[in-house]
């Protein structure tokens, strides 16, 4: 199976083989995914991404491989619009584009947070598709008048490959426009923001075949017409499929540019408590839901490193982690989810600003900044894990970490220290492996997710991290709560 996994910073194509000994996954192509700023707007370079998908197919051909199918997963919320002639109307906007700032607060006041949450079960994030579309409508975007189909990023790339315009369930749920109870796009919310529901097609479930490669592509590349499967196309949905859990009750952390922590449930947990804690109920594979919370994640560290690179102070990841371990512990803690850290650029000065505002020591060098980021993330993970247990009524005996962020062994160990429970880290390419697993389920090679998880557990290494230094982490957690809980209480009162 061929899996394309697109993250907010890079993309990769992996080829998976399944035999009696298990799964092997081999990377055949890796590429950057860099946003492009044109004028005042920030876009995704969607045609470059399409080109890279074709490059992946070319590499597969050169290796003499013939995939049975392919699937694409990516980040959520962002989308493209097709005109009546089937052509793309402009480059998709990037979710961090500044034009969307402030719209969430406006729509929440108009409809009330409770009404929106009751209809969608989705966490309030300023860049959700609901607020992106409301912004375009209220600014008079000509694209909306001309649009015939709404496609999210994997939908759109699939369309380029197959000519079939189809929406997929897991990614549709990230929009805050999909009603998980009715199983339909929410007409009331669309009507409120003035967007026609004619653009939105039925959302198919993961594992659905949605066409095959266009003849123009197979002809140009000299390959066969590979079937295309709608996998769990939200990358976290694919990552959760790959969690090598043995217990039906488990907690996961999909760790990368974003961190997403939660558990798998059978029905959406739409309650006043989950609303107050700003949790989300996103669709999963196999008809499940992912009760989870978005956490800002390694974006803060990545953006700091880009800033140092621009300043001629570039440092390797390995060296930065060494310096972080040598820096004084718990000198500068912050809430990674503070709105201060959402925009790109100038990240380190905003970390110092937060510390000034809260009467803490300002981290001055690279090691101290990196330590403050990683400690703050680890402490936030504990807070969210406790909330996940509270909302789900479960008690977890450890935490499964998947995704590229698990290569940061310092973060894995500090997470175990913070939560006071074991961390099981692996596999690193969780989204791509989950992507493949859904394709194998669709083909009949696996009967369900749990059979796939057993094979994944036996096929890929998992690193165990046991908690250490509990007293100092307990003290730090108490201080972290005192710093952040007043902000959380204020946010809760607003909803």
Structural class: alpha+beta
Q: Quick one: biggest sheet?
A: 7 strands, mixed
If strands are numbered along the chain, what order do they take across the biggest sheet? 17-18-16-15-19-20-21
Tally the structural domains.
2
| Average of pLDDT | 95
Tally of contiguous helical segments: 19
CATH class of the largest domain equals: Alpha Beta
The CATH topology label of the largest domain is Nucleotidyltransferase, domain 5
Percent helix range: 40-55%
CATH superfamily of the largest domain: ATPase, nucleotide binding domain
For the record, the CATH architecture of the largest domain stands as 2-Layer Sandwich
- The count of strands amounts to 21
| Overall 3D shape | globular
| Alpha carbon gap, first and last residue | 44 Å
The proportion of residues in beta strands is 15-25%
């Amino acid at each position: 199976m061929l899996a394309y996994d697109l993250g907010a910073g890079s993309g990769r194509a992996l080829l998976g083989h399944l035999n009696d000994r298990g799964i092997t996954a081999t990377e055949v192509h890796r590429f950057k995914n860099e946003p492009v700023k044109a004028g005042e707007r920030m876009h995704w370079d969607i045609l470059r991404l399409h080109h890279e998908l074709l490059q992946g197919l070319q590499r597969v051909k050169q290796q003499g491989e013939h995939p049975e199918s392919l699937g694409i997963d990516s980040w959520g919320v962002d989308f493209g619009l097709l005109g009546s002639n089937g052509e793309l109307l402009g480059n998709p906007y990037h979710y961090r584009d500044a034009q969307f700032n402030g719209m969430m607060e406006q729509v929440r006041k108009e409809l009330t947070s409770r009404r929106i949450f009751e209809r969608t079960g989705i966490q309030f994030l300023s860049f959700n598709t609901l607020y992106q579309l409301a912004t375009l409508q209220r600014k008079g975007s000509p694209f909306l008048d001309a649009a015939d189909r709404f496609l999210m990023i994997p939908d759109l790339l699939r369309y380029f490959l197959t000519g079939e315009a189809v929406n997929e369930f897991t990614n549709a749920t990230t929009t805050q426009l999909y009603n998980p109870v009715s199983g339909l796009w929410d007409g009331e919310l669309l009507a409120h923001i003035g967007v026609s529901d004619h653009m939105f097609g039925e959302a198919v479930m993961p594992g659905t075949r949605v066409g095959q490669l266009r003849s123009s592509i197979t002809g140009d590349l000299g390959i066969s017409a590979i079937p295309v499967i709608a996998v769990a196309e939200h990358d976290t949905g694919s990552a959760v499929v790959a969690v090598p859990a043995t217990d039906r009750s488990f907690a996961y952390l999909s760790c990368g540019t974003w961190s997403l922590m939660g558990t798998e449930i059978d029905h959406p947990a739409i309650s006043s408590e989950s609303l107050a804690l700003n949790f989300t109920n996103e669709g999963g594979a196999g008809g499940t839901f992912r009760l989870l919370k978005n956490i800002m994640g390694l974006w803060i560290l990545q953006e700091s490193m880009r800033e140092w690179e621009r300043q001629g102070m570039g440092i390797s990841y390995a060296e930065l982690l060494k310096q972080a371990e040598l820096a004084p512990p718990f000198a500068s803690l912050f809430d990674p989810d503070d709105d201060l850290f959402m925009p790109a650029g100038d990240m380190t000065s905003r970390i110092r600003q937060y510390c000034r505002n809260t009467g803490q020591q300002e981290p001055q060098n690279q090691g101290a900044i990196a330590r403050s980021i990683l400690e703050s993330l680890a402490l936030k993970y504990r807070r969210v894990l406790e909330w996940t247990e509270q909302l789900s009524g479960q008690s977890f005996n450890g935490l499964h970490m998947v995704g590229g962020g698990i290569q940061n062994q310092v973060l894995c160990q500090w997470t175990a220290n913070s939560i006071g429970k074991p961390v099981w880290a692996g596999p690193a390419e969780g989204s791509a492996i989950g992507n493949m697993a859904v394709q194998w389920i669709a083909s009949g090679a696996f009967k369900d997710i749990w059979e796939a998880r057993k094979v994944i557990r036996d096929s890929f290494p998992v690193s165990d991290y046991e908690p250490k230094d509990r007293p100092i982490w307990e003290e730090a957690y108490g201080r972290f709560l005192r710093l952040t809980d007043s902000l959380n209480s204020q946010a809760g009162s607003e909803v």
